[in-house]
Description:
127 residues
Amino acid sequence: QVQLVESGGGLVQAGGSLRLSCAASGRTFSNYAMGWFRQAPGEERKFVAAIRSGGTTYYTDSVKGRFTISRDNAENTVYLQMNSLKPEDTAVYYCAATYAVYADSSRYYHANVYPNWGQGTQVTVSS
Length: 127
């Protein structure tokens, strides 16, 4: 089990940048795959990005080239650098963790494989 706390959300104009952080408890953070998901009002929670324990990264198409996921295992933290933000990026962003390892990388795109979740941080992009 791991506890997750997100930070770094806020209000930004379109074209601006934000960096989200997710601090994790526990001594085995480096063994977890970490994901970022987002949920806009009235919509389901959607995959944004993930990073496996070995550093392999995955992104949903709408954020490729704009967002970067990274991790610092010494600090037990995963980051989401968000550049060129658009109003459609507005959502509550959630950090998630899973200890499971999947040969099929598409599994990491699904919220139901992550048993550990943070409380979320609001990102609002104004036009």
